[in-house]
Automatic annotation (TrEMBL):
InterPro entries assigned: Asparaginase_II
Name listed for the protein in its UniProt record: L-asparaginase II
One Pfam family, short name: Asparaginase_II
Length: 335
């Protein structure tokens, strides 16, 4: 059963409650920390992007097309189409040799408000590469072009690239394929739903790749996580939780739409997956900060960066403190 993770107060009156689940797994893959139901099934949404990128690196499509670290990193990203993101995406289009209208993701304006405002001032049109998933799409198109797979159907569930993604997720999450539920993501790609415990196990393998027996996948994961840490700004953007956490080279992290967030800790050999049931993302930094505090994480700078993204104090438009956010969950040790 779900539990309350965070409460929002306006003055001293409770105004909003966010419920959900948290699962933390140890190095052995066993559940160690529990809040709510660790078997709650959730769609990965964009938290699945690292697993969707693994086949690209496994087959060396990034090297084949001469992609830089920044260009490779954006394949795992939910970018905001800030100018430095767009530069990388346009370079990828040229290097891979695909047309922008070959992307199935719909033309849109950037998620970055500032980037969108600049485009509107210049009366610039929407573009497919402004979509926050376009880096992932370009990565799979690169794989398809190198492998000789059909480009026109690269997003279909039965496409060989998509089948390899499904197999990769199943292998790393220890969730058998016929128990992985399938849907369609906002960008047009297949999206997978698995229990939180399996999602945490998958992120544990990213943080501790020595647990991966398959050498090709292990090598791809090691390279991928290093790139995510080195080019953290490409995985999300300015003032975003993923980029803030990835600055800490001990952490590999990625979130997805509708409240799912995951991260692994290399030194501690732990990984967490959480789901905010109302789908809100604003609470992520406070929840992650509380998890890190409760396990006595020693990098206080990382914890502080979470509170900078989502302060405990709630301020109105005039910068007056009018309420507070309060995390109320306690990690339970699983026996």
């Amino acid at each position: 059963m779900d539990q309350i993770l965070l409460e929002e107060y306006r003055g001293e009156t409770l105004e909003c409650v966010h419920r959900g689940h948290i699962c933390g797994v140890s190095y052995t893959g066993e559940v160690k920390y529990v809040v709510g139901d660790t078997n709650a099934v959730t769609f990965l949404r964009s938290a699945g992007k690292p697993f969707q990128a693994i086949p690209v690196l496994r087959h060396g499509a990034d090297v084949h097309f001469g992609l830089t670290g920044k260009e490779t990193a954006i394949m795992m990203g939910s970018h905001r189409a800030e100018p430095f993101h767009v530069d990388a995406l346009e370079s990828m289009l040229r290097k891979i040799g695909v047309a922008e209208d070959g992307l199935v993701c719909h033309p849109t304006y950037p998620l970055s408000v500032y980037a969108t405002e600049d485009l509107l001032r210049n009366q610039a049109p929407k573009r497919s590469i402004y979509h926050n998933c376009s880096g992932k799409h370009l990565g799979i198109l690169a794989l398809c072009k190198m492998m000789g797979y059909p480009l026109e159907t690269y997003f279909e569930p039965q496409h060989p690239a998509q089948l390899e993604i499904l197999e990769t997720l199943s292998y790393l999450s220890e969730c058998v394929i016929n128990q992985i539920e399938l849907g369609t993501d906002g960008c047009g790609f297949p999206v997978f739903a698995i229990p939180l415990r399996n999602l945490a196990i998958a992120f544990l393998k990213l943080a501790c790749p020595e647990l991966i027996e398959d050498e090709a996948i292990r090598t791809a994961v090691e390279k991928m996580v290093g790139i995510m840490n080195e080019h953290y700004e490409m995985v999300a953007g300015s003032d975003r939780i993923c980029s803030a956490l990835l600055r800490d080279t001990n952490i590999v992290a990625k979130g997805g739409a509708k409240g799912v967030y995951c991260f692994g800790l290399k030194k501690e050999k732990l990984a967490f997956a959480l789901k905010v049931l109302d789908g809100s993302e604003d609470e992520w930094p406070l929840i992650v900060a509380s998890i890190l505090e409760q396990i006595h994480y020693d990098n206080t700078k990382t914890i502080q960066s979470m509170y900078e993204l989502a302060p405990i104090e709630i301020k109105n438009d005039n910068k007056k403190v009018i309420g507070r956010n309060t995390t109320v969950f306690a990690l339970q040790i699983h026996s």
